[in-house]
Design brief:
Helices cover about 75% and strands about 0% of the residues. The N and C termini lie far apart (about 115 Å).
C-alpha cells in the first residue's frame, strides 16, 4: 500500500470534512451560535483523523520529525498546563486547553501530508471559500441568507463580520498560489473565481486588520516567489502554457475597481456588538484608522492587560481566564452594564496573559521556525510542493498580523487551517523523530474529550439562552429551571450562577440566591454582577455592612455601574443617610440621565421629603420612556394617592400589576384606592388577591379586616385580624388596634346572639 493510500484514510474522511463542515456549521438556538457548533465539528473530525492516522501508523510504524517548531509548541503547551494552577473555572480552562492541544495535533497531521493530500485540501478550501463568500456577498446586498444569525453582517456563517474576515485571510493566498501554479484549467477557474469572491467579501466586511494581514501576507509570499528564479520561471511557464495572463490581468483590474469604486454598505446590527458608523463607506473605513479615537477600545485593553501580564508573568492566569482576570485592571474603561471584554483583541497579549511570558516565547519560536523552514524550502524543496508552501507562508504572515488586532486563535475555521498548513510548510525537514502512534493516540483522546466537552457546552449554551430570555420576560421559575439544568452540564459560563441567583432573588429565596452568587464569585472573583447581586441579598436580609462590602467591591471593578450605584443609594436610604443616597442617584443621572432605577429612587427621596411635584417629574421621566416600568408606576400611584387623586392612581397601579401580575403590594394598593373611592367590592377583590399572592403579607389582612369591620362582617374581621397578629412584628399600635377590633367584633356577635 502506498503512502498516499495510507494517508488518504484520515485525509479524505476527516480533514476534508473538517475543512468543509467547520466553516459552514452554525445553529440558532444557543448563545454562541457559531463558535460552539464549529468547535464541536472541529473536535469530531479531529478524532476521526486521529483514528485513521492511528490505524495506519500502527500497521506501518511511521515516525514523525520533532523539529524546532514542535519544540516551541511544546513550550507553549507546557506552560498552558502549568497555568492551570491559577484557573478558577476548570470547565472553561479544560475546554480551551483541549482545543489548543488538538490544534497542535493538527500541526503534526500536516507534517505527514503527501502532495496529493495537500492538493485535495487546497481544492476543499477553494470550494468552501467560494461558498461562504457567495453567502456573505448575498447577505451584503440583502438578497439571501439574511436569516443566519449575526452580530454584524455580512458574516456568512461566522456570526460576525470580523470572524468571516479571519477565514478569508487564509482563503485568498490559497486561491492566488493555486491559480499561479496549476496546469489544470478547471482548477485555475475555481481558484480565480474563489479569489475574486473572497476579495470582494473581505472588502465588504470592512475589517482593516484582515485587510492588512491578507495584503502583507500575500504580498510577502509573492515577493519571495519573484525573488526565486526557479519559482518565477515555473509560474511564468504555467501562465504561458495555459494562456492565463489575460484572466489574471482582468481579475486584477476588476479588483482595483472594486477597491476604489464607491459602494453602498448593507450592514445590519442584530446582536450585542454595535457596528462602527465611521466605517459606512470605503473612505471612512480607511480614515477611521487614523482618527485619534479610532481604536481606543483595543488600546485600552492592551494597556490594561500589561499589568495583568506582569502580575502573572511566569504562570499566566489560566486557559480561557483572561476575561476573569481582566476586570480588576479595567477601571471602567471597557466594562459596560450589558457586556464585558472576553478577549484583548490581540492573540499575543492573550497568550502571554493566560500562559505566561514563557508560553508566548514558545509560540513565537514556533512561528519563527515555521517561517524560516518554509522560506528555505521554497529554494530547495520539490517543485510540486512550492504552491502550498507559498500559500502557507502567506497564511502564517497574514494571520499573525491580523492576530495583532483580533483573535484568530479562538476561531476553529481559521486556527485549523493555520496549524494544518504550518505543519505542511515544515514537512520533509530533518529533526529528531517521534513515534507516530502515541501522537496519534493522544490526538484521538483529545478529539474525543473535546467532542464531549463541546457537546456539553453547546447544550449548556442552549439553557443559557433560554434562561436569559426567561429573565427578559419575567418568568422567574423558568429562569431558575433553565439555569439549574445548564449548570448540571458544567460551569461553562460563571454568569449562569448570577442568573440563577437573580431567579432565586426574584422569588424571595434569599438564602439560595446568596449561595448562587457566592458560587459565581468563587469562579469569577471579579464579577461585578455577582458582587452587586450579593449586595442586594445582604441588604434584604438586613446585613447592611455586608451589602456595603459587596457594592464597594463591585464599584472597584466597574466604577460607573449604574445598577450598583443605584443599589448603593437604596442602601444608604435604608441606613437613614438620605444625603448620601441622593448623591449616588444624582451621580448615576449625570452619565445616564434616563436611568430608570436612579430616577425612580430619586423620586422616592423627594416624595419622602414632601416635594411631591419634584418627585412626580422623576417618576414621569421614567414612564415617558418605559410606560410599563412597575416601580415607577407603583410609586407614582402612591404619590397620587397622597393627593387623593385615586382614579389616576388606580390607572398606574394597574400598569404596575400588568408588568408584575403577582405583586401583592400592588394588589393591596389597588384595594386601598378602590376602598377610598367607596368601591368596596373591587377593594375586597384586590385585598383577597394580595393575600393569595403572598399569604405572609400582613398589611393585606389588616386592611381587609378593617374594611369588613366597617360593613359589620364580624367573624371575618376576627379571623383576618387574628391571622394578622400571628405575623405582625412591627409598630405595636397596629397590634393594639387589631386587638381592639377583635374585641369589638366579638361584642357585636354576642349582642346579636342575645337578640
Amino acid at each position: 500500500m502506498t503512502e498516499y493510500q495510507n494517508q488518504a484514510t484520515y485525509a479524505l474522511l476527516a480533514i476534508v470534512g473538517l475543512l468543509i463542515v467547520v466553516p459552514l456549521a452554525y445553529t440558532t438556538d444557543i448563545f454562541a451560535y457559531t463558535l460552539l457548533p464549529k468547535r464541536l465539528a472541529f473536535s469530531i473530525f479531529a478524532a476521526i483523523a486521529a483514528l485513521g492516522w492511528l490505524t495506519t501508523s500502527a500497521r506501518d510504524c511511521w515516525t514523525i520529525p520533532f523539529q524546532t517548531p514542535a519544540i516551541g509548541l511544546s513550550v507553549l503547551c507546557l506552560f498552558a498546563l502549568i497555568s492551570l494552577v491559577n484557573a478558577t473555572n476548570l470547565w472553561v480552562a479544560g475546554s480551551e486547553l483541549v482545543f489548543l492541544l488538538t490544534l497542535v495535533g493538527l500541526f503534526f497531521v500536516g507534517q505527514r501530508a503527501t502532495d496529493r493530500d495537500t492538493k485535495i485540501w487546497t481544492l476543499t478550501i477553494l470550494v468552501t471559500g467560494a461558498a461562504v463568500s457567495i453567502v456573505g456577498i448575498l447577505q451584503y446586498h440583502d438578497l439571501a441568507f439574511t436569516h443566519i444569525p449575526s452580530n454584524g453582517q455580512p458574516s456568512a456563517t461566522f456570526g460576525y463580520r470580523n470572524f468571516a474576515a479571519m477565514y478569508l485571510v487564509a482563503v485568498l493566498p490559497i486561491a492566488l498560489f493555486a491559480f499561479l501554479y496549476t496546469n489544470s484549467r478547471p482548477t485555475a477557474a475555481l481558484s480565480f473565481i474563489t479569489g475574486l469572491l473572497a476579495a470582494l467579501f473581505l472588502l465588504y466586511t470592512r475589517t482593516r486588520g484582515a485587510w492588512l494581514g491578507a495584503f502583507v501576507g500575500t504580498l510577502g509570499a509573492f515577493i519571495l516567489l519573484v525573488a526565486r528564479r526557479t519559482t518565477r520561471a515555473e509560474v511564468t511557464d504555467t501562465i504561458r502554457k495555459t494562456g492565463q495572463f489575460k484572466p489574471v490581468a482582468a481579475g486584477l483590474a476588476l479588483l482595483a475597481l472594486l477597491y476604489l469604486g464607491p459602494m453602498a454598505p448593507r450592514f445590519t446590527d442584530t446582536g450585542l456588538q454595535r457596528f462602527d458608523e465611521k466605517k459606512a463607506d470605503l473612505q471612512s473605513t480607511m480614515t477611521s484608522a487614523l482618527a485619534p479615537s479610532g481604536d481606543r477600545g483595543r488600546l485600552a485593553m492592551w494597556q490594561r492587560s500589561l499589568p495583568l501580564i506582569w502580575d502573572h508573568l511566569l504562570t499566566g492566569v489560566g486557559p480561557g481566564h483572561w476575561e476573569f482576570a481582566y476586570p480588576r485592571y479595567d477601571g471602567g474603561a471597557m466594562i459596560r452594564p450589558d457586556s464585558a471584554p472576553k478577549r484583548p483583541h490581540n492573540d499575543f497579549i492573550w497568550i502571554a496573559s493566560e500562559h505566561g511570558l514563557p508560553g508566548l516565547v514558545g509560540y513565537l519560536i514556533f512561528l519563527a521556525a515555521v517561517l524560516i523552514y518554509a522560506i528555505r524550502s521554497t529554494a530547495s524543496g520539490p517543485a510540486g510542493r512550492r504552491e502550498v508552501t507559498y500559500a502557507a507562508i502567506a497564511i502564517l504572515i497574514g494571520v499573525s498580523i491580523h492576530a495583532c488586532f483580533s483573535f484568530p486563535k479562538e476561531q476553529p475555521q481559521i486556527a485549523s487551517v493555520f496549524f494544518l498548513f504550518a505543519g505542511v510548510a515544515v514537512r520533509g525537514q530533518q529533526g529528531r523523530s517521534l513515534p507516530e502512534i502515541p501522537v496519534a493516540a493522544a490526538l484521538l483522546v483529545l478529539g474525543a474529550v473535546g467532542t464531549y466537552i463541546n457537546w456539553q457546552q453547546l447544550n449548556f449554551d442552549r439553557h443559557f439562552l433560554r434562561a436569559m430570555l426567561a429573565e427578559d420576560s419575567g418568568r422567574w421559575q423558568d429562569m431558575e429551571r433553565e439555569a439549574a439544568a445548564g449548570l448540571e452540564l458544567g460551569t461553562f459560563r460563571s454568569h449562569m450562577y448570577v442568573i440563577l441567583g437573580r431567579a432565586h432573588e426574584k422569588q424571595g429565596q434569599l438564602d439560595r440566591a446568596g449561595h448562587a452568587y457566592a458560587k459565581a464569585l468563587k469562579i469569577f472573583p471579579n464579577s461585578w454582577h455577582a458582587h452587586n447581586g450579593s449586595g442586594v441579598v445582604r441588604k434584604r436580609l438586613g446585613d447592611h455592612p455586608g451589602a456595603m462590602v459587596h457594592y464597594e467591591r463591585a464599584l472597584k471593578i466597574y466604577p460607573d455601574a449604574p445598577s450598583v450605584r443605584t443599589n448603593l443609594g437604596a442602601l444608604y436610604r435604608a441606613m437613614g443617610n438620605q444625603d448620601r443616597a441622593e448623591t449616588q442617584f444624582r451621580r448615576v443621572l449625570q452619565s445616564a440621565p434616563l436611568n430608570e432605577g436612579a430616577n425612580n429612587n430619586l423620586g422616592n427621596i423627594l416624595k419622602a421629603r414632601g416635594e411631591l411635584d419634584s418627585a412626580e417629574v422623576y417618576y414621569r421621566r421614567v414612564l415617558d420612556r418605559n410606560p410599563g416600568f412597575a416601580p415607577a408606576n407603583q410609586n407614582l400611584g402612591d404619590l397620587l394617592t397622597r393627593r387623593r387623586e385615586y382614579r389616576e392612581a388606580i390607572r398606574h397601579y394597574h400598569a404596575a400589576l400588568e408588568a408584575h401580575p403577582h405583586n401583592a403590594l400592588t394588589m393591596w394598593s389597588l384595594g386601598s384606592a378602590y376602598e377610598s373611592l367607596g368601591d368596596l367590592g373591587e377593594a375586597e377583590t384586590y385585598y383577597r388577591q394580595a393575600i393569595e399572592a403572598n399569604p405572609n403579607f400582613p398589611r393585606s389582612y389588616f386592611s381587609l379586616a378593617t374594611m369588613l369591620f366597617g360593613v359589620h362582617r364580624w367573624q371575618e374581621t376576627i379571623d383576618l385580624f387574628e391571622t394578622f397578629l400571628t405575623m405582625w412584628k412591627g409598630d405595636p399600635k397596629f397590634r393594639t388596634f387589631a386587638e381592639g377590633r377583635i374585641k369589638a367584633s366579638r361584642d357585636w356577635i354576642q349582642r346579636i346572639e342575645k337578640k
